[in-house]
Amino acid sequence: MFKNKIILSVINDQKYETKILTRSNDNFILDDQEYQATHLFWNGLYYNTVQVRPEKIKTKSNHGIGRAVAGGIIAGAPGAVVGAVTASKTSTVQKPLTTTLRDPQNAILELKNVQTDELKQLTLSFMTENGFYKFEKKIGLQHENY
Question: If you count Cβ atoms within 10 Å of the first and of the last residue's Cβ in the chain, which end, N or C, has fewer?
Fold first, then answer.
């Protein structure tokens, strides 16, 4: 039933409309008019990685009390001072939290009216590259960058 139909998300005056493009031999029917697909323009998706939380370094110090007591027993007051000063520190690095934002770029499908030779451009929205490539295959055109 829907084998020859392509459902499009068309952007018209900042609003989305759903249009159905029906294949008719080598041409397409849209709004009761017959068109030939002439060009398909698309620049792909833009990806931007955003840092949500910065890298964090946590330093934990072990108390030098035990080392001071041990140093004091072994070497007296100077040993206690050296033992306290040499208490160990442990640092852990918490990696930054990032996310990738996807900015879909619109595609433009150019159609030529078979009866009047009038050109019509449809601005199409695709959320994924896979969805666009499936459309490209169905329409039978290789996209061009614009």
Answer: N
The H or E element that residue 81 is part of is helix 65-85
Tokens of residue 81, six digits: 């001072």
The pair of structure tokens assigned to 146 is 């614009």
pLDDT at 26 over 70: yes
CB 29 within 8 A of CB 5: no
pLDDT in tens, 27-49: 999 999 999 999 999 987 777 88
pLDDT, tens only, 1-23: 457 888 888 988 778 889 999 99
Q: How many other CB atoms sit within 10 Å of the CB of residue 83? A: 21
User: Given the structure tokens 């159609």, which residue do they identify?
Assistant: 111
Lowest mean per-residue pLDDT among 59-68, 106-115, 118-127: 59-68
Residue 136: CA count within 13 A, CB half-sphere: 17
Cα atoms in the 13 Å half-sphere on the side-chain side of 74 = 11
What's the confidence (pLDDT) of residue 117?
Answer: 95
- For residue 124, count other CB atoms closer than 10 A to its CB: 19
